[in-house]
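Shipment paperwork, digital attachment
Item: protein structure file
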Amino acid sequence: MVKKITLMASDSKPYKRGSSSSHLFSWDDIPGNDTDRFIEFLKHKFSIDWITTELIEKIDNDRVIRASFENKSFYLRLND
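Attachment content:
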């Protein structure tokens, strides 16, 4: 089964964690400093609990974040 997720993020509507709000994650810092934020968001918003930091990479000239494990994959693509 393939799930297609379209995600639109806006600076005017930050992701709220607890009582404080902050950005979802920085695209430039995935993988990297914001990987944990990215994973937390995916777990909370989409119930994707199989992603770990070792499984995340960028492909297609850094336009796509790919996470994969066994027969599961998740792709998040920047809009052109």
